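USER:
Working in pairs, take the chain set out below, taking as long as you need, and write a paragraph about the fold.
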Amino acid sequence: FVAVLGDLNSEDEATFVAEKMVESLCGEFVVGEYRLSVTPSIGVSIYPDDGVSTVQLLRNADMAMYRAKDAGRNRFEYYEASMNSKALQRLQVENDLRKAITQQQLMLYYQPKVNVLSGAVVGMEALLRWQHPQQGFISPAQFIPVAEESGLINEIGDWVLRQAVLQQRLWLSLGYQIVPVAVNMSARQFNQKDLVEKFVGIVREIGVPMNFIQLELTESMLMDIGVNSLEMMNRLNEAGFDLSLDDFGTGYSSLSRLKMLPMKSLKIDQSFVRDIATDENDKIIVNATAVLAHAMEMKVIAEGVETQVQLDFIRDSQCEEYQGYLFSRPVSAEEAVKFLQLKGELN
């Protein structure tokens, strides 16, 4: 929504109003049996410094609002002239991304999930990569936010799922014993009313058992989706998809909400794994998270394991699986096949 303030004597008055708006919108509110909260992001532009027309002022306030979102939300930002160049860069990324979808510049890499005790590969995560014809590989951290804001994430999400399932089907046809492959989901995808039907249709059309496809949702994503999304998660779970909570510990989801989710596994974010050899707080967090997840009957997966010391610690913490460079970086589908066994092959 837009708020128009007139007869301002100074910028401080706009700051005061913006602070009050953020404060009032941050409070919890009740919808049925749920307690919810929102994370407001406010952009401010001032006449005539930031524009002399309604169009200019709204456009510049909009850019400032996106800056507030990128800075973590629950805040406001004033428009700055430098935002124009960033907006142009973002538009270029969006235009190039539209071409990437149709010109087959996108691809999937696969990182194995490894059983902590046996060392066997028990799953993989499909990770999206963009090979730009001029710029080379572009980081997902650079293009995924643009895809979400522009709405392209729905089309890309469908493509990722379809490619992951097709790859599973190909491995099966070549005689390999496949393992579950996880794909990441975006909060924007949950706005699609036909999401469950579409996902089920893709998997059934290609002919892979539903339990060989996992869906990963980040903890911060749970704050962005509405009450209806819980019903959608339950429907995805009932359809046969295993749901996993990704990047646990980086968001602010409440335990009361977490216990309602039909999650089969929980992934401890790599930021907690990285320093467990030296940071006592990280050790405590990893141990406590494993205990919490097991109490809710969830499997625990540690991300970002790069050293034997880290692996030894997560083994002692009763984590069932891990991902990380200690075993393998994400690799192409052609390389990932080495992690699979042919049917009838002995362990």
